[in-house]
Specification:
- The chain is of the alpha/beta class and 425 residues long.
- It folds into two domains: 269 residues, Mur-like, catalytic domain (UDP-N-acetylmuramoyl-L-alanine:D-glutamate ligase, 3-Layer(aba) Sandwich), CATH 3.40.1190.10; 138 residues, Mur ligase, C-terminal domain (Protein-Tyrosine Phosphatase, Chain A).
- It is 32% helix and 22% strand.
- It is built from 13 helices and 17 strands.
- Helix 2 crosses helix 8 and helix 4 runs parallel beside helix 6.
- It is globular.
- 50% of the residues are buried.
- It binds zinc ion.
- The site of zinc ion has 8 residues, from loops.
- Zinc ion (ZN) binds next to loops.
């Protein structure tokens, strides 16, 4: 069914894969396409496994088998990508990044890389593979394909990391095994990389992001140049350097499909976070910003976002960590997060959730002064109450929950009338 329905799409299908930012990037692409205007088939509210994608198509299709749209944007789970590519025969595949995430589900990155490589090398020149050139692992996977490869990446002078973060993976040359070096490092292992031993380096970029401006937890702006052409200034209603990558990836896809820059700019300007990524809530006179933290790389980017402009943590912050199935049962990943960033600054840190004590312990070993660490009750409504009590009325504060902790906090806030119904369809 999936093969037949996708074959009937006038403008074909785009498949989006990557460990982080899939949902945001997929929504950005879909928003751009809707301005064309195309009707977009999109697994927006469903799962990103094969059955979820089929369900999204079935929901949109007519009884006679018309797909109900001109183009599809499909978010693919890492493990589902090979089967989706084989069944859908997409026009474009976007490979956004490959991070260590939920290793208990998929095993090593190398295994994912091998299965991806296996399906990519069977594609013909009718498919374009758009690759984050700043990710050395993705470049290795997509070398010498029959399909067309297009790379994007950053050329940024302001927002750089000095050293590889703890959580970084894949900083090894895939050809000779030597440690990679970087002319510039931006997020985790993503950057302008090269191998000092065999000379491999980041491929030439077709789409280059630069001059990134980060506006706290609100938004960002960047310039994107295409080939040798002049650059386009874009604003995006989502924060953080990782979203600059997502916007660059989405713009690359839109351009490869032929969408004018003007429409891309309009869609990005109107774009806002989906529930559960970054959200601001007014509650009992406090201005709370909630940011989901679900893996080391995402957590590091949130910590950078909260500390970059102020040189350390400025506001009171509650970290809520659960270890239910959807969070990952093993919380050792907290040791891969650079909580050392929080040792600077005066903001107090509060811990709650089923693994609140583990979190408090991690902060202690990160060098956070003990008088800044406060253990709240593990139970989330009680933890939230204690936190709000500790933040003076009229003040702003951050809440960083793991996935199920976010759901529980949202429910508590919704029950108390602080937020509207939150599931985005
Ligand atoms: Zn090498």
């Amino acid at each position: 069914m999936l093969t037949k329905l996708t074959a009937r799409l006038e403008q074909g299908a785009v498949i989006v894969a990557g460990t982080n930012g899939k949902t945001t990037t997929t929504r950005m692409i879909a928003d751009v396409f809707e301005l064309v205007p195309w009707r977009v088939v999109h697994n927006r509210s469903g799962s990103n496994l094969v059955r979820g994608v089929i369900a999204a198509f079935v929901q949109r299709a007519s009884l006679t088998g018309c797909p109900g749209g001109e183009i599809a944007v499909i978010e693919a789970d890492e493990a589902a990508l090979p089967e989706l590519v084989r069944r859908v025969r997409p026009r474009i595949i976007l490979l956004n990044n490959l991070f260590r995430d939920q290793l208990d589900r998929y095993g090593e990155l190398d295994t994912i890389g091998k299965t991806w490589r296996g399906v990519l090398k069977d594609l013909d020149a009718g498919t374009t593979v758009i690759v984050n050139g700043d990710d050395p692992a993705l470049v290795a996977i997509s070398d010498s394909l029959a399909a067309k490869r297009v790379c994007f990446g950053l050329d940024e002078t302001t927002h750089r990391l000095d050293v590889l973060p703890h959580a970084a993976d894949a900083a090894v040359c895939r050809v000779c095994g030597a440690d990679l070096a970087y002319h510039a490092l931006y997020v985790s292992h993503l950057g302008d990389w090269y191998c000092p031993n065999c000379g491999r380096k980041r491929p030439e970029l077709t789409y280059t992001g630069s001059n990134i401006q980060l506006y706290g937890v609100e938004s960002l702006a960047l310039d994107i140049s295409e080939g040798e052409g002049h650059s386009h200034h874009l604003t995006v209603g989502v924060p953080g350097l990782y979203n600059a990558y997502n916007a660059l990836a989405a713009a690359s896809v839109a351009r490869e499909v032929g969408v004018p820059w003007e429409l891309i700019g309009q869609a990005f300007d109107a774009f806002r976070s989906a529930f559960g990524r970054i959200e601001r809530v007014q509650y009992k006179g406090r201005d709370l910003t909630l940011a989901l933290v679900k893996n080391p790389t995402g957590f590091n980017e949130v910590l950078r976002m909260l500390t970059a402009e102020t040189g350390g943590l400025a506001l009171p912050t509650m970290i809520a960590i659960n270890d239910l199935d959807a969070d990952g049962r093993d919380v050792s990943w907290l040791w891969d997060v650079d909580f050392e960033l929080l040792a600077r600054g005066k903001g107090d840190l509060y811990t709650t959730g089923l693994r609140g004590p583990d979190m408090a312990n991690r902060l202690k070993y990160a060098g956070v002064a003990l008088d800044r660490i406060h253990s709240l009750p593990n139970e989330l409504p009680a933890g939230l109450d204690a936190f709000v009590e500790a933040v003076p009325e009229g003040y702003a504060a951050y809440i960083l929950p793991s996935y199920t902790a976010m759901l529980a906090l949202r429910k508590t806030l919704a029950d108390r009338g602080a937020v509207d119904a939150f599931w985005e369809q």
